[in-house]
Amino acid sequence: MAGRPTPGCLSDLEMESEEPTEVEMSSCFLDEETFCQCCQLLLQHSHSLCDGWSWEQVKGSEGYLRKTALGTGRTRCILDQQGNSSDQHQERTFSLSFHNDEDDEDDGAVCCIQEESSSSSVVQYEYHILYSCSYQTPVLYFRASTLEGRSLCLEEVWDSVHPNYRQRLQHRPWDTITQQEHPLLGQSFFVLHPCRTEEFMMPVLKAALEEHRQVNYIVTWLSVVGPVVGLDVPLSYCTQVPEPPHTPSSSPQPPSSSPQPPSSSPQPPSSSPQPPSSSPQPPSSSPQPPSSSPQPPSSSPQPPALGTKPG
Amino acid sequence: MADDKDVLRDVWFGRIPTCFTLYQDEITEREAEPFYLLLPRMSYLTLVTDKVKKHFLKVMKAEDIEEMWFDFEGTSLKWHYPIGLLFDLHASNTALPWSITVHFKNFPERDLLHCPSNSVIEAHFMSSIKEADALKHKSQVINDMQKKDHKQLWMGLQNDKFDQFWAMNRKLMEYPTEEGGFRYIPFRIYLTMSDRPFIQKLFRPISPDGHTHTLGDLLKEVYPVAIPNDDESKRYQVVIHGIEPLLETPLQWLSEHLSHPDNFLHISVIPVPSD
């Protein structure tokens, strides 16, 4: 796999001028087994914090992390003649889009009727972390509803994104939020598009590799994407959750037997994370991500007190 | 290869005769006549049903119109699935024309995606193409195309222009000769008898020792239930574009010729009809 860096989507990274090693190239992608292991480690820490994550499994299929949380969002409400508001939401898309389908540039802009105001209110969020085998990354799915049980529309979800992150979403179309079908449940969810994941993960993982630090892929990834959609990731995750045990082979070639996906190990070759290790790694400075994304928290690894076998 | 090009045309020009009937509880000013339409298998419901909407709007008041959606025998139809897939999955063994019920109220928020404009359909379509290329070529081919090339794929689909579409799509169907095929095959297997909407996994068209994988090999690996054991009678039909391809068909060939315009092989596994 010599030569060009492994492409994700539109790559404008500084990496293009370098010759990444095989380990580096495979390290920004996540295989499914490592995904599960990272999730189990996150889960253990979540239990200790009562942070609400659980592992769900639809019968006969893959599993995913799930969490519900109350947060704030901006929701629409209808004002009646007296100016009183009620939480109802009607869609009038087709009386407006009826005449001019071909020219219609707005995505979801005609989602809500005119006599409305937008206000801050309590919103019930549900977050799922799934694995995408197509992109070999995790993907964040979420849905949001008012306390009365009404689902938020895409416009309201956009309005609920913190202003700090909104610019990022607007300027980079592949960071956008869209409505998608949940691949395991078949229901409507909102999704942060996964194809740019590699772009922000690669520098972090590369720095960790160079500095011999542990990185739990899911924790790092979640700390970047979660806050965009109202999901908080307490700092202790980054200090307390270890990476899964590293398998020696970092070659992305498929095994010689029946058709299996290649089990490339995305973990940097750190010294053994076996419990209970007696030699902690020296703390290191935080990695420098590309300037347009928020800083991932620095991780100072400690000897893993938790078992590294997935639950 | 002349035969293979014909397959591409047959797939593109497949049509399903459909009868659209307004849901009985919708409020109308006078009786609504059913509306008949030939639907392209390879397109999407919300892209080709403007005429249906206009037809029923003639007998309804504007205030009774919300987002249009469809159901078949009580199952709401996902507009983001290709029309041919919806038919094969839900109505394969029913009499033609396909009878679809039209709704303008009570949009099923949990189950259906909203589709406020054609640009949502375009975004969905392009997203599928990109995902397929991530599997086939690690996104190299789609990323090397310019924005106008992407647009050409969409316009070809939207305007039913086979040549315009395939002028671009053929690039997505190429592969290095020494590889023998794509990196992974973009496919989804849809099940009616499961909560899970579809199965999608990584699967190579050629094994490491050079053996060509078939449709049967794929099913044995990811959904063995679909293939009967020797002593059992066949319980399921494996349908692509309304036909049951032989299980010996090479998967690479299927991917190049029987994919939908979104570059995915959409495979339905449905119970064999009992009558």
From TrEMBL, chain B:
Its main location: cytoplasm. It comes from the Eukaryota. PANTHER family: AUTOPHAGY PROTEIN 5. It is a peripheral membrane protein. GO terms for cellular component: Atg12-Atg5-Atg16 complex; autophagosome; mitochondria-associated endoplasmic reticulum membrane contact site; phagophore; phagophore assembly site membrane. One of its GO terms (molecular function) is Atg8-family ligase activity. Involved in autophagic vesicle formation. GO terms for biological process: apoptotic process; autophagosome assembly; autophagy of mitochondrion; cellular response to nitrogen starvation; immune system process; negative regulation of programmed cell death; piecemeal microautophagy of the nucleus. Conjugated with ATG12. Residues 11-104 form the Autophagy protein ATG5 UblA domain. This is Autophagy protein 5. The gene is LOC110514282. Keywords: Acetylation, Apoptosis, Autophagy, Cytoplasm, Immunity, Isopeptide bond, Membrane, Ubl conjugation. InterPro entries: Atg5 (IPR007239), ATG5_HBR (IPR048940), Atg5_HR (IPR042526), ATG5_UblA (IPR048939), Atg5_UblA_dom_sf (IPR042527), ATG5_UblB (IPR048318). Belongs to the ATG5 family. Residues 184-269 form the Autophagy protein ATG5 UblB domain. It is found in: Cytoplasm; Preautophagosomal structure membrane. Residues 120-174 form the Autophagy protein ATG5 alpha-helical bundle region domain.
